[in-house]
Specification:
Layout: H1 15-23, H2 27-45, E1 48-52, E2 54-57, H3 86-96, E3 100-103, H4 113-126, E4 131-134, H5 137-147, H6 151-161, H7 176-182, H8 189-201, E5 206-212, H9 218-235, E6 238-245, H10 258-271, E7 277-278, H11 282-285, H12 287-292, E8 300-303, H13 310-313, H14 324-333, E9 337-341
Parallel strand pairs: 1-8, 1-9, 2-3, 3-4, 5-6, 6-7
The structure holds iron/sulfur cluster.
Amino acid sequence: MPESIPVADDALLDREATLAMFTALTPDGLFDVARLANSLREARHGRRATFVDNLHVNPSNICVRACKFCDFAALPGEAHGYSLSEDGIFKTIETQQPTEVHIVGGLNYEWGYERSLGLVAELRRRFPGLHIKSFTAVEMHWFARIAKLELEEVLTAFVEAGMDGMPGGGAELFSERVREAHFKHKLGADEWLEVHERAHALGIPTNATMLYGFGESLAERIEHLFRLRELQARSGGFVSFIPLAMQYGVDSTRAIAPLENLAMVAMSRLVLDNFPHIKAYWPMIGTQTAATALGWGADDLDGTLGLEKIAHAAGAATPKQLAADEMRRLIETAGYEAIERDGAYRPVARARAA
Ligand code: SF4
């Protein structure tokens, strides 16, 4: 594990208290919630805020599922499907020299288990110091199925190939009602949680996410957070939680308001008091809201993100990439000490650009 964390026996809030707190929010109450979340954030991280110089690698968007909310994927044979070559991925890493890669893609038979494992092994061989965060629970579960292997065999093979941890994507929202309406062929909540629990049992650190904005109830969002909290209390393997705001592209009438995004960050910090880190994911909430979220419970702005495709395919209007100096400036103008970190949250020393 990159960091040992105290695992609280009891949550600061239970489901009912969280629902009551966020249902009855007045404007003043909202800022009280922010202050409480910020006090928890400052107790853990002081005035430090981190970011990572990372590269999102999405090897292919071709996917055999067709989740209704997903603007990234293409079904096999569709014109906008793409598949990157390994050489192209290596060249981009050589050029950009990130400290971390975040690899996720569609469920594409051309990028099946052996090839994906080979990519990780070759990345480790070529870039020994690179932090490799690879493949969501959905992909790991699918690799095991198509390769007819036990999940533990797949996860162990990726660790032996050089994987350092797993990203938190694919969780979407743990409500079965929402899954039935929007992504009914995708891995369900129980299976997603089980993949992470089994990864944690093998010592693999992972992240967790929640995609909100389907039209779900407040109680459904809260239930999602508590299920993560309960798994963390058993396994202790989650490093970071990332609330992800649904993107509505050009339909700005449906965009989630900045205050709602900030309230989600605060709720995450309050409920997930056994998670070391809460991220404000700037591609989905915008750079200014993300910087503001540092005072609402978030302690990390994720990364520079070169080549990110998923949020931007869904219509995110944010830049496709931020330079490390821009990340620092964003954090410092929000009043925090900016610290560049590696994939295991260790500080990275790097000279500033002139
Ligand atoms: S959300 Fe994931 S599983 Fe669903 S279509 Fe998109 S890439 Fe495929």
